[in-house]
Amino acid sequence: MNPEEILRKKFEEELDKAKDKGGKADGVIWVAVLANAGMGAVPLGINIWTFAGVNTLMVVFLGGIYEYHLSQEDAGKLIKQIFGAVGWTWMASVLGLKFFAEVLKGVGVITLGGTTVAGMALDALLSGAVTYALGYTTKDYFAKGKKMSKSELEKSFKSRFEEGKQKVKNRG
Known about the structure:
globular; mainly alpha
């Protein structure tokens, strides 16, 4: 089984466990959060493509829960819409920190000194928090019938990002 098939299976298990849409969405979001936070903690180079793939698939599944059938391309457009609402400068700073964490992880590998714990911890925290924020903002968006203003998307994402940092830190 490839990683996408494994992730799909985990998402489907969560769909089977919960009885209502909110519970199903929560389960899917946490599978994605733990997958991305876990990949962030792995000392194996840059994982930005895995991070993007997990988030895209999460958005596809969240859409399905709320009876919006999205392709991966549609999910990518929604992710861009949410990130755009948050503000590209703000998102660039967060993603810049993620890239910095990737570099910190890689520095040890390049110098044969092992990866840095700080880089792995920072990457895991940021990966999990961004996924948490994206997941819950997407859940809100679909639950409200795809009717959220740019400012509502921004407010939701930023508050969920802060909440997600604490939740990921507490689970770690």
